[in-house]
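Just scan my protein:

——
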Amino acid sequence: MIVFLIVVIIVVVMVTGLYNTLVKLKKRCENGWAQIDVQLKRRYDLIPNLVETAKGYMKHEREVLENVTKARQQAIDASSVKDQAAAENMLTSTLRTLFAVAESYPDLKANTNMLAVQEELVSTENKISFARQHFNDTVMAYNTKIEVFPSNIIAGMFNFVEREFFELENEAEKEVPKVSFE
């Protein structure tokens, strides 16, 4: 009877420990996503300043500015990790187009507001990249834990499910957009 009681206690302690580890990893995934969200919000806040600064100089490039604004809104409205990644890919692409077109406007390239927004955007892009990396590392640890024995049994019992990675779709989009007007 005592041996059975000891075995039950050991099993309960193991289950509790594995469950708590899974909960901690799940919370780290949620925190990682929240960090990405913070940086994306900062990026979204910078884009209207960029567009407004460029508007005065780029009177004939209305479509480019509208595309940036639409892509920003789609990124804000994205709900899942996969949708967010797709929306961010589109936003990065439209920003590249904006910066490529802006190269044709020497006065815009020299504008102090444009230079300040560029600098902030580069900083934010770097922070987004680090936040994505942290999130994906955390998701990998979580997904691995729910797949390995014996924690996979506990994960199945308590409905812990795999998380999606925040992945970029093609190689060109994996590069930070060039925002230099030099």
The chain has one domain: 2-174. Residues 2-55 form the longest helix (54 residues).
